[in-house]
Amino acid sequence: MTSIRTRLLSILAVATAIVWLCGVSWIALHTQRELDRMLDQRLGEVGRMVNSLLRSGDIDPMVAAGAAQSAPQPTEAGPRNFISCQIWDAEGRLIGRSGDAPTEELATIGNGFADTMVGDQPWRVFAIVDATRGTRILIGDNLQERQGIVRQVILGLVVPAALLLPLLAGLIWLSVSHGLRPLGQAAAALRQRKPNDLTPLAPAALPAEVRPMFQALDALLERLAESRAQEQTFTAFAAHELRTPLAGLRLQAQLAMASGTEAERQTALRHIIIAVDRMTALVRQLLELARLDNDVSPPDRSIDAANLLDDAARGMHPLPCPLQVAPNLRGLPVRVDPGLFSMTLRNLLENAVQQTPAGEAVLCDAHRDENSVIITVSDRGPGIPPEELQHIRKRFFRGRHKTVSGSGLGLAIADAAMRKAGGTLRFRNRPEGGLVAEILLPLGQPAS
What is the CATH T-level fold of the domain 4-166, as seen in this structure? Predict the structure, then answer.
């Protein structure tokens, strides 16, 4: 891919050349137009002067023709003396001319201006016909001389341009290099960084054009630093949480091997199964967190909330406590991704079941307003102390009323899944005891 410096230099060089050519073309056309106007005006003045002298009778035709030679001419820097004068009588005889005028008639027109060819030379001619005296005065300019003046003007512009363009190219190169210097400094700073250095670049004196790019890069580095810190914390907590059930498995296996009775062996095996179940749940939750850390958001669609609730309950079978699903939850459509919603329900139900005492039930209810649905999962446990409510969304947080089988990931997974699905998860304590989790979702379209 072409570098920015090369692209800028190419664009500026082409733009400068186009502007210069347009300027030269405009000056050439304007000069040609003004020169034609000025010289036509001079032809008319000379013609009228010669005709005035003839009519006054002060000079004869030969002297009058010579008067054109003595007309005021431009200086050495201007056009040379190229005006020619002819005087013809009514019978078409040349009765007078200037010294440099051709003998061939300049034009056959009456009064006014005309462009003619005399031999192989183009001429601009002004004619005055005096019917009373029977004379016709022709004053002419050689157009090649006029065009030579325009060429000299254009040459005076092109030659300095050819000499100044290399200097202009050098100045453009220096300007572009100076303007791109912050990019080079940032690249050098990034090359010198260590892989674990994710601090913002914060370069000084940034130009306004590149400042948004550096700000976006700093924001990316900040997100990467947060992601790395979160990953390190997650890895440390996961290793700690897995170490406990693994140690328990080893201990129970040793007890089973060393047991002297069948009852002791069965007790040890039962504890092994409990530890395996805990590790299975923990691994599943870790995999769910890994899925939620993916930035790709799945599409949502209208689903029946009660059906997913039943699926989540069947996945936890057998439940240690009954699950009561309110009738108003049946047939209630919500617009959400089924996978994320099922993940949320499963973790909320697991948390509610762990907190609910034996003989009590977990209640799932719902109510709706005009555009949204609020689904609640309520347990009959001790609830969450008010000072811990703000922390229960954190990963691996286990409060005062923690259970043996809990890992501190269920509510964090449920909250992350809802945020990713575009919903909201809220927690509050029941006045009579227990925790209520509220899921706020957009109302879906009823199934046809």
Answer: Beta-Lactamase (3.30.450)
